[in-house]
Amino acid sequence: MRNQLNLLRYVEGDSPIHRLNPRAKVGALVAMMAVFSFDASWLAVALLWVVVLGGAKLAGLPRSVAPRPPRILLITMAITVALGWIAGGDPYGLGGVILQLRLFGFTLGLLGMSMVLGWTTPTADLPVAAAWLLTPLRAIRVPVDDIAAGLAIAVRALPLVAEEFSTVISMNRFRSKQHKDLVVRGMDITATATVASVRRAREIGEAVQARGGAPTAAQIAQTPSCPNRWGVAEVGLAVATVGAIAAVTAF
C-alpha cells in the first residue's frame, strides 16, 4: 500500500474528522493554504504540521496509508540542500540550508494537509464542496460551471489515472530487463502513457455525453450525499482555522 498512489483514496472510519461536513473541511483547507502561502515562516510550518499530525491522529489513520516518497524526490531534496549549503548565508553559512529546509517543511505540510482531507472525505463529496465554495464567484463572471464540472471529472478519474500509472510502471520494470537503452525505455513509457491517457479521456467523454452532458455547479453542490447543515464540530473547525490564521498573521 505504501508504494501506491493514495492521495485521494478514502479510508473508512467513524472519527470526528470523518464526520465533519466536507464543505467545512475544504473551506478550512483553502483558507489556511491561502494565508500560509503569504507567510511561510517557521511558525506557519509548525502550525501546518500540528494540523497534519493532529488531524491524522484524531482521524485514526494508520501509518501504512502514507505513500513512500520516491527515490528521485529524496535525491532532488539532497541536491537542493547541498546547493543551499554551497550558497552559504547567515547564520554560520547555513542560511541557504535553513531556507531550503523551511521550504520543504512548508511544501510537505501543505501536501500532508491535503492528503488528510482526501483520506477522511469520500471522493464524491470533494467536488460538491468545491462547487459550493465557487458559487459566489459567479457574480464576477467566473465560469463556475466549467470549473466545477472539470473538478468533478478530475477527482472521479484520479483512481483510473493511478491504475494506468501502476500499469506503466510495471511495464517499465519488465522492459528494463530487456532493454538497457534509456532512450528506448523513455520512448516506450511516453507512448504507453499517451495511449492510455487518450483512451481514458475518450471513455470519460463518452460517459459524460451519455448522461446528458456535464453537470452544473448548482447540481453538483446540491448532491444529497454532502449535507448542507453545520453543527458544533463545523463551528469548532472554523474557530480553529481563524485562530491559526490569526497566529500566523500576528507574528
Brief synopsis:
The chain is mainly α and 251 residues long. It contains ten helices and no strands.
Main attributes of the structure:
251 residues, mainly alpha, 2 domains, 71% helix, 0% strand
Query: How many separate structural domains?
Result: 2
Q: Determine the number of helices (DSSP H or I, runs of at least 4 residues).
A: 10
Note the overall shape: globular
Largest sheet: none
Unreliably modeled segments: none
Helix content: over 70%
Instruction: Indicate the structural class.
Output: mainly alpha
What is the chain-wise order of helices and strands? HHHHHHHHHH
Overall pLDDT metric: 76
Distance, first to last CA: 40 Å
What is the alpha-carbon Rg in Å? Answer: 21 Å
If you had to describe this structure to a student in words, what would you say it looks like?
With 251 residues, this protein is mainly alpha-helical. The protein folds into two domains: 148 residues, no CATH class; 102 residues, no CATH class. The protein is 71% helix and 0% strand. It is built from ten helices and no strands. α2 crosses α6. The protein is globular and about 65 Å long. The protein starts with 15 loop residues before the first helix and ends with a helix. The model has no long low-confidence stretch (mean pLDDT 76).
